[in-house]
């Protein structure tokens, strides 16, 4: 089967492309840099240079494809020019859906995020695909852009019958987080001993390979127009650091920071970066990240497990894979790498 993957050089997209290639599919990847993921080329993935913001390149890449997986996205907690993010995440998504209609693909999987869903209450039940949510619930341009992109995808299903399934990954962790993602950067900071304290917040952590498998399962078993949370384990940030400590031997922070002073510092950091550094360097304390931390991001992935058969790897295994990969690939100082190596036997 010929399939197209956008965002194949990204964290989740890479794992999706690898699984498709391993399944024996004829995989085509739309990429801005053909040399960004040489591992994919070695697997026989056809690399086509293009950009989701350019309909012509998307249309050409989609031609003849029976399945399309749209994972390309601009995922940053801070962006000097928000128009670029909306151009990729919203207009780019419309381009992919148009190209999918044009190509006649039998199934399209659109990768959204749990960030486009309703956050949970601190002491309430985890949010689901059906928890009421609006644009005003979105914190930051990334979440807003993905929320708006979801609405565009839903229009293509409701108004044009496009056979598209929406998946909402939670917080993926694991190997091959090369950039790294904001979550990966948090793990790298911890492994380098640079996390002296934590905020009282919660996230849903999931193995990136489970998320990738969830995409293939969504294409096979997902209901067109349906939405599925690809999640794993709801954990406080404190407990997540304890898991990292258990697999790495690095001491977990024991100091809980008060939220309001950190929020005030984030406003100062954002202003300094924007007005004194002219947006050329991201703030040391990203305001959007701190605002996100003010809400619990707990989600219920039972629907994906029940209807798709999505696997859920134990969180410690996912944490171990992430720590092992970062330590083995130059993201961690040599002294810490030796300590981590002794702890996880890399």
Keywords:
13 helices; globular; single chain; 346 residues; alpha/beta; Rossmann fold; 7-stranded parallel β-sheet; 3-stranded mixed β-sheet
Q: Rounded to an integer, what's the Rg over CA atoms?
A: 20 Å
What is the number of helical segments per DSSP (H or I, 4+ residues)?
13
Instruction: Look at the structure and give the mean pLDDT.
Output: 92
Question: SSE order, as H and E?
Answer: EHEHEHEHEHEEHEEHEEHEHHHHH
By CATH, the architecture of the domain at 2-177 and 205-233 and 298-313 is named 3-Layer(aba) Sandwich
CATH homology superfamily of the domain at 2-177 and 205-233 and 298-313: NAD(P)-binding Rossmann-like Domain
Number of strands: 12
* Largest sheet composition: 7 strands, parallel
Structure summarized in a few sentences:
The protein has about 350 residues and is an alpha/beta fold.
Task: Outline the structure in words.
With 346 residues, the chain is an alpha/beta fold. Helices cover 46% and strands 15% of the residues. A 7-stranded parallel beta sheet has the order 3-2-1-4-5-6-10, sandwiched between helices. The longest helix has 22 residues, at 82-103. The two termini are 37 Å apart. The model has no long low-confidence stretch (mean pLDDT 92).
